[in-house]
DNA sequence: CGCGCGGATGTGACCGTGCACATGTGGGGA
DNA sequence: TCCCCACATGTGCACGGTCACATCCGCGCG
């Protein structure tokens, strides 16, 4: 109806070939800049192409080659700061390498959603896959489905996983916890993320490891949902008991909620309670007080991820990708040493 | 090399047909659930399909039908709260309607990046396009390129734009400004977003309109970059002069930076300065003090957007999509009326 | 009993591109 | 002069679906 296509349908290589007086294969060679094409022929073909506003049909190309120069990203919760930052850096890195990126979001984390999302990417004939799967069960479901393409996961439960590119969450959590212990705190709570999130589990593990290593009695972690809202309500409950001097929150948003609750209870940070977060979201430096937190280098993560994936794809195995070390950013939400 | 495909290649409809003892066309009919297929035949075919783990090849399908059941989203700055929320709700709405979503991100906003991103989507044979183009120049570049597919833009400079689905930014800014004026403020600054962002411009316009309407002398808006960091530095400068009692910030992040700077200067919110933000990010309720701000209904925006687009695509024009009215959320960062 | 009709299924062409192979052409060495 | 080879280009088919059309079969009706 409302199609304003000139000749009823988009031009194809044969149309170009006809007008340029060559065969369709020659046009194809120009497209894939094959070496043995005479310069004059190439120019003529290119001219006709731009004249017709020719655009190669990628469906056809993908059909015949099973190649698409596309990397798929399987993500969930892409509106969170972490995932979206990673996706952004993956896109940048992939673009530099001449690849397209298509993302598929999982609204839920059941196997059906995973399969649907993978189908979506599969249908695009992606050549490689980056799986940003913060939930344990997603990772497990994926390892069951045997993927036909090389893939890389971000974050893993398993240290020996050759597919994993990750930030060392355990080390980050230990940094945060040690910082609190060094400042003299002995009653420290941990506000963790949802139980089935890999990051949440790793941070919890790091917390417990460090507490044990330093012989500080541990408390049971509180399981949250990453939201500031949850941090606030958890903080309200905690302030009723008031048997702690510091809290290590598994992300910055929940830390914000905690601070809110502490102030609502008439106390202050860091005078009465010290708080450490995780992620170093851009806002963390401007919380009141500015938040001590653990920074993850997301851009680096994205870059390594794409590099590792392309390595795997290009039959040039990069070996073990290693882990990125996070960094403790000390700000005012943890006071000066109290001893 | 490392392909662990069972039989060398993925099964196709002919493989399914052979095993089910029918023709490939019958398989195709089952796929598209054509009415005149005997139930027993259908079941047999479906069984073989799941046995072979058959998945239709979308490239092939797109090639022959020129249909892809895919909606493209052209976005920039997708890591920002607004765009990412919108994308998420678009995905949900599209999925409900049986459509896939592919997003293309523009790292820069020059015409080249736009064309590259559009090519990407075009190559996927998208049937419709949602353009989340917060910058004026992007919108302008796009209106020059004549797209071959129906499209919808989010936010526009032009009230009569039939392609636009948008939140009424001007009305939102007026709400915020009026709120400050009603509380007795007469010296109000506006910390705006970057000049070429449509939202920034609209909010600035709303601010100026309301100030004029209420006969309050206006000050020149300060042009920011949306970041908390900028808000902080702008706040530091402003606190040197200290000739105001309220600031309307064009987003919540900059508002956070402002609050930080005000406290650094030894003053407080809302006692000395009232602050209003824009967006109502999930954290805004837990800022200290909780932030008065303007809420945009992103989920609704995404839904309407998809509905309007599908309407356009399905030859069932929906008429003028209208604007979504934002809502003022009053919290503690603006004190009680001072008169 | 023959005819027509509609449901169920099969046959072959086609979408736009890339690949394997064939063909043509010109130049250099024996 | 002839042959061989490298370069430049052309020919036909394959990819995996869908579409238009053909075919087959059983049933109801005149």
Notes on the protein architecture:
- Chain A has 339 residues and is an alpha/beta fold.
- The first copy, chain A, has 3 domains: 2-56, lambda repressor-like DNA-binding domains (434 Repressor (Amino-terminal Domain)); 67-167 and 298-323, Response regulator (Rossmann fold, 3-Layer(aba) Sandwich), CATH 3.40.50.2300; 169-296, Rossmann fold.
- Chain A is 44% helix and 14% strand.
- Chain A is built from 12 helices and 12 strands.
- In chain A, strands 2-1-3-4-5-11 form a 6-stranded parallel beta sheet, with helices on both faces.
- In chain A, helix 9 links the parallel strand 6 (188-192) and strand 7.
- The longest helix of chain A has 16 residues, at 81-96.
- Residues 1-6 of chain A have low confidence and may be disordered.
- Chains A and B meet through helix 4, helix 5, strand 2, helix 6 and helix 10 of A and helix 4, helix 5, strand 2, helix 6 and helix 10 of B.
- Chain A binds a DNA duplex (30 and 30 nucleotides) through residues 10, 12-14, 22-29, 31-32, 35-38, 41, 56-66.
What is the structure about, briefly put?
The structure is a homodimer of 339-residue chains. Chain A has 339 residues and is α/β, with parallel strands linked by helices.
